[in-house]
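Lab notebook, design round three. We kept the backbone fixed and only want residue identities now. Task for the bench partner: fill in a sequence for the structure below.
Input structure tokens:
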């Protein structure tokens, strides 16, 4: 099992990872997170900010700053 790491240690090379939005308010949690958690999947660092990865859709404005990060887990085989 992977452990959550402080956001300051997150990769800044375009690697995609999951984040924990520990300081997010309820509306941000509802928008960004897996229901019942403060976990949000598939973020990366670009242009000086952590942002959700949207593939070719571009960047979405982000109003929260993650507090922790975790490597993506391997998919089922």
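Proposed sequence:
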């Amino acid at each position: 099992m992977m452990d959550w790491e402080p956001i300051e240690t997150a990769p800044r090379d375009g690697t995609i990872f999951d984040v924990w939005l520990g300081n997010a308010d309820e509306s941000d949690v509802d928008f960004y997170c897996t229901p019942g958690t403060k976990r949000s999947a598939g973020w990366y660092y670009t242009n000086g900010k952590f942002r959700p990865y949207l593939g070719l859709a571009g960047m979405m404005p982000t109003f929260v700053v993650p507090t922790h990060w975790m490597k993506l887990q391997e998919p089922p085989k």
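Keep this in mind before ordering anything: The longest helix spans residues 26-32.
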